[in-house]
């Protein structure tokens, strides 16, 4: 268990096949030039949409740390889509969750957001890791009441 916590987000068999020389900025500049290549990207889920033939995950890109986890920052290079050819529960793959994906570049998608059209690269998921939510105990006090027993029949309100 300890060993698993210190491994890269994507398995070595898939990560070794990925092109690690392509930064997100180059992919955004010319997604068609990287079509068919296996890349590793990550970020924070913005939206998950169920489709007839799979699931589309809109990800706000973030740089990955040494272990392949998206960095804790508000900086983003833009958005990209992950297409997963199966059903993923939108309640589990919900906005705010971090995700790392090894995916084959399929091309671009041109969604209209408001009155502006964008270009998002689309990756066909080969493998991904959905990260656990961080406990945010720093923003509210945490303490344990040694006399509190939630199963006690004598609750005082």
Record the SSE blueprint:
Blueprint: H1 12-15, H2 24-29, E1 38-51, E2 54-61, E3 79-84, E4 98-109, E5 112-113, E6 116-117, E7 120-130
Parallel strand pairs: 3-7
Antiparallel strand pairs: 1-2, 1-4, 2-3, 4-7, 5-6
**Number of individual domains:** 1
Q: Could you report the average pLDDT, rounded to the nearest whole number?
A: 86
Task: Give the C-level CATH assignment.
Answer: Mainly Beta
Biggest beta sheet summary: 5 strands, mixed, barrel
**What oligomeric state do the depicted chains represent?**
single chain
The overall strand count is 7
Derived from helix and strand composition plus strand pairing, the structural class reads mainly beta
User: How far apart lie the N and C ends?
Assistant: 41 Å
Q: Categorize the overall geometry.
A: globular
Query: The CATH topology is what?
Result: OB fold (Dihydrolipoamide Acetyltransferase, E2P)
How much helix is in the residues? under 10%
Uncertain runs are: none
Strand order of the largest sheet: 1-2-3-7-4
Q: At the fourth CATH level, what is the homologous superfamily?
A: Nucleic acid-binding proteins
* Tally of DSSP helical segments: 2
Give a nutshell description of this structure.
The chain is mainly beta and 157 residues long.
What does this structure look like?
The protein is mostly beta strands and 157 residues long. Helix content is 6%, strand content 35%. The chain is built from two helices and seven strands, in the order ααβββββββ. It has a five-stranded mixed barrel with strand order 1-2-3-7-4. The protein has a two-stranded antiparallel ribbon with strand order 5-6. The N and C termini lie far apart (41 Å). The mean pLDDT is 86.
């Amino acid at each position: 268990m300890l060993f698993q916590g210190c491994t890269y987000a994507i398995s070595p068999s898939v990560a070794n096949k990925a092109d690690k020389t392509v930064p997100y900025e180059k992919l955004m500049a010319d997604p068609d030039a990287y079509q068919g290549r296996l890349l590793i990207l990550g970020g924070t889920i913005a939206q998950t949409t169920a489709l007839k033939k799979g699931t589309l995950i809109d990800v706000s890109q973030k740089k990955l740390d040494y272990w392949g986890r998206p960095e804790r920052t508000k900086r983003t290079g833009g958005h990209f889509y992950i297409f997963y050819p199966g059903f993923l529960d939108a309640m589990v793959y919900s906005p705010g969750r971090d995700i790392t994906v090894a995916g084959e570049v399929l091309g671009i998608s041109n969604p209209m957001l408001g009155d502006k059209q964008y270009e998002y690269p689309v990756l066909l998921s080969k493998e991904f890791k959905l990260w656990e939510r961080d406990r945010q105990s720093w923003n509210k006090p945490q303490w344990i009441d040694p006399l509190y027993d939630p199963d006690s029949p004598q609750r005082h309100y």
